[in-house]
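Re: the 28-residue chain
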Amino acid sequence: LVVRYEWYSFLYHGFVSLACLILVARTL
């Protein structure tokens, strides 16, 4: 369960960071 939680949290943070980068790129 711990490994899965860390994996999902990693994917979630990666997705959020990608979304933020896309938003910044669009504004620039």
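Residues 2-27 form the longest helix (26 residues).
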